[in-house]
Amino acid sequence: MTDNYCERPTSLLLAGILLLIVAAGCRNEAAAPDHRSELRSIKLATTTSTDNSGLLAELLPPFQAMYGIEVQVIAVGTGRAIKHGENGDVDVILVHARAAEDRFVESGFGVNRRDVMHNDFVVLGPAEDPARIKGSADVAQALRKLAATESFFVSRGDDSGTHKKEMALWEAAGVPPEGDWYLPAGQGMGAVLTIANEKRAYALTDRGTYQAYRDKLALEVLVEGDRRLYNPYGVIAVNPARHSDARYIDAMTFIGWITSPEGQAIIRGFKRGGEVLFTPDAVLDGGAGAD
Amino acid sequence: MGGADFIADSVTTAFGLIFGGAPGVFSAVLVSLQVSVTAAFLCTVIGVPLGFAVAVSNFRGRHLLITLLNTLMALPTVVVGLFVYAFITRQSLLGPLDLLFTRKAMIVGEVILGLPIIIALTNTAISALDRQVRDTAITLGAGRLRVSLTMLWEGRFGLLAAIAATFGRLIGEVGIAMMLGGNIAAHTRNITTALALETSKGEFSVAMALGIVLLTVALGVNFALRYLQGRGEVRP
């Protein structure tokens, strides 16, 4: 009887705490703009490179403060981001795979594509550089050397923008990426860099992700500067004629903001470890070209 | 960094995350708890009666059904995610409900994941009861409902184990949360998707720390369940 008396308050307390937590979570949900309440929201499917680098954390709060539109970010590979756009799961996409973007627009899934910014891809590898590609200005020739020496190469293998670029580069090199040395990881950029680091392998990465990870890596930039390594990002609204639920006006407001002088200034000023990660493309200085 | 350093670093980081009041971590814990507790509750309400029915009734194909349920316990979470996605993407049947990338979608997915587990384990718990429990209750003149309640009461330890196992599977899963929740910060980012994100960012200590946070939360819930179980033990 005494035992029972002692135990009851404890279990009641525990149950109470649990209920409170769940209730707090529920209230949170009610306040959250999952439903179309006071604070409007749009969903943005984008690539891990824009989100993991911390750029969106800089860009989105000023936008939300100015327009009262919350941007909910779903960070996936470019391939899946475009798929979510096609299915109308999101209202706007910010991706980097020009050919796939053009198909997305031509097929009527997206409208009003705008250039936003660019950075570039680089080929990383171990400092010993067994394939001797360091300093090469021709990325295709560097890849041919990797294949010839069968040096380990870690690929995204996930249909992301970086993976699409890598495939195009192998095609330009004229060698099929096949063999025990070629390792498709099927994971995000960060995971691929970590794997390449552990295996002392080569990898293709966007410069922004490399800069964000540099402290954790023993890999070096071996090939850069080839025109084919240019990496442009585009923003596209989901076609409201195709998906009537798409929050088109709010999506266009976002596109307007990110390509406005204010949005572009944030991109230009965004640094990680003292280095600029992206070059804005939407607002041209004195009508000069975008590159 | 040596293995021991890494673990020690993770534990320190975990304490920092739990007591430092990092807002991202707090909201991830809330999302995890809210989604998994709600889903486990729904699984219990739906699954325990079904599992009980499977245990006490005799019908053709009962063994086949049990085999099927046991097989479904192996459901990969991503398959559940894809299955639910097909129904709630904007162009599909339930698209207009606007469920995708919300906590409700995560709950739906987790209920589907948890149901086979709780049905199968409830069936096991009730089937394991001595046949005499039922017979005695009937002999004492109990009605159908009274007999059922008696059996559920006698099987309460097995049932609590079933609920705990289901809850454990739900709070630890990542595939459904990622696919149907979308890992949106402060909305659908729970402990496991945050953990996956930090791992992909190479922040291994933070990821490990989040794992420790998850286990701590699960420990709290299991303690709560155990106290309920303990209270039951005193009564007879």
Question: Which structural category do the helix and sheet elements of chain A fall into?
Answer: alpha/beta
Helix count, DSSP H or I runs of 4 or more residues of chain B = 11
Count the beta strands of chain B.
0
Q: Radius of gyration of chain A, Cα only, in angstroms?
A: 23 Å
CATH superfamily of the largest domain in chain A: Periplasmic binding protein-like II
Q: Could you tell me the CATH topology label of the largest domain in chain A.
A: D-Maltodextrin-Binding Protein, domain 2
Report the average pLDDT across residues of chain B. 89
Number of domains of chain A: 2
Q: Please give the largest β-sheet of chain B.
A: none
Instruction: List unreliable stretches of 5+ residues of chain B.
Output: none
Structural class of chain B: mainly alpha
Shape of chain B: globular
Instruction: Tell me the number of helical segments of chain A per DSSP (H or I, 4 or more residues long).
Output: 11
Topology (elements, then pairings):
The complex is a heterodimer of chains A (291) and B (236).
Chain A: H1 2-31, E1 40-47, H2 48-52, H3 55-67, E2 69-76, H4 78-86, E3 92-95, H5 98-106, E4 110-126, H6 139-149, E5 153-155, H7 161-173, E6 182-184, H8 189-199, E7 202-206, H9 207-213, E8 219-223, E9 230-238, H10 248-258, H11 261-269, E10 271-272, E11 275-276, E12 279-280
Parallel strand pairs in A: 1-2, 1-3, 5-6, 5-7
Antiparallel strand pairs in A: 3-9, 4-7, 4-8, 4-9, 4-12, 10-11
Helix pairs in contact in A: 6-7
Chain B: H1 3-19, H2 23-56, H3 62-72, H4 77-88, H5 103-127, H6 131-139, H7 144-154, H8 156-172, H9 175-181, H10 191-200, H11 204-234
Helix pairs in contact in B: 1-11, 2-5, 2-8, 3-5, 4-5, 4-9, 5-8, 5-9, 6-7, 8-11, 10-11
